[in-house]
Amino acid sequence: MVHTKSWTLKKHFEGSPTHSNFELKTVELPSLKNGEVLLEALFLTVDPYMRVAARRLKEGDTMMGQQVARVVESKNSAFPAGTIVVAFSGWTTHSISDGKDLEKLPAEWPDTIPVSLALGTVGMTGLTAYFGLLDICGVKGGETVMVNAAAGAVGSVVGQIAKLKGCKVVGAAGSDEKVAYLKKLGYDVAFNYKTVESLEETLKKASPDGYDCYFDNVGGEFSNIVIPQMKKFGRIAICGAISTYNSTRPLPPGPSPENIIYQQLRMEGFIVTRWQGEVRQKALTDLLKWVIEVMGSRAT
């Protein structure tokens, strides 16, 4: 007999999430059927997108999200007990799966790399950075890339990939500690957008010639200031809009159409699940390779 503890959506969000939006429930799970496995969560994700995606849940549903889990009991030969997998089981300690949506860690995953990175740099957030920068922005060496929320799970990876590709990278974050972190990651310019006197002037000083690529995690007024500073034929990957998620007021007006038309900019929103199959596996291979290289360089 196995009991699972699950965080459920007690009531839908209005403004910023609070404890009252959630309820922790304990439920007894049924016995396994043939082909099923029992998973025990090792790590869970808590991501900004959930603030918006939770609108699709019914009150009482378990909060969505990926987790790294261990198979603790199995009636599926493809996933023997002890197997570590990535599952979309949500905020729950234990769950039952038929194995169809489970993903094993890559065979080449070394013991020196924490398995939690399968939810981060070598998982959904890393893939978001990878495809947003390389496919949506189509970044090339020598270009200048602007990233906001640059110290976040996605933004921190965007900056590092851009540096690997030979770009100049400018990042904005919301604290001095985060700015120091960005500089450790190799950002060419990093600043605290909350304390600069003028965001517009700070961006101009960081790259007087403008920006080829803008990886936007924030939206709102921040983007309205960045977009006029894009170079001709600039590309904008709209990953998120965290500045607006908790707002209960009308959203601010968008960027001027004149800037987009006369600078001939390309803006595209995207969701990482667009990329599947071989391209996704290649991206995971690249991300794991880069992490192993970075970990190796730190050890020497």
Question: What is the alpha-carbon Rg in Å?
Answer: 21 Å
| Order of strands, widest sheet | 10-9-8-11-12-13
CATH homologous superfamily caption of the largest domain? NAD(P)-binding Rossmann-like Domain
State the share of residues found in helices, binned by percent.
25-40%
Oligomer: single chain
Which parts are unreliable, with pLDDT below 50 for 5 consecutive residues or more?
Answer: none
CATH C-level of the largest domain: Alpha Beta
CATH topology of the largest domain: Rossmann fold
Order of helices and strands: EEEHEEEEHEHEHEHEHEHEH
Number of strands: 13
CATH architecture of the largest domain: 3-Layer(aba) Sandwich
Count of alpha and pi helical runs: 8
Shape verdict: globular
Q: Structurally, how many domains make up the residues? A: 2
Q: Which structural category do the helix and sheet elements fall into?
A: alpha/beta
What's the rounded overall pLDDT mean? 94
Largest sheet: 6 strands, parallel
User: How much β-strand is present in the residues?
Assistant: 25-35%
Distance between the termini: 48 Å
Pfam families: ADH_N_2, ADH_zinc_N
Domain Enoyl reductase (ER): 15-261
EC number: 1.3.1.48, 1.3.1.74
InterPro entries: ADH-like_C, ADH_N_2, ER, GroES-like_sf, MDR_fam, NAD(P)-bd_dom_sf, PTGR1
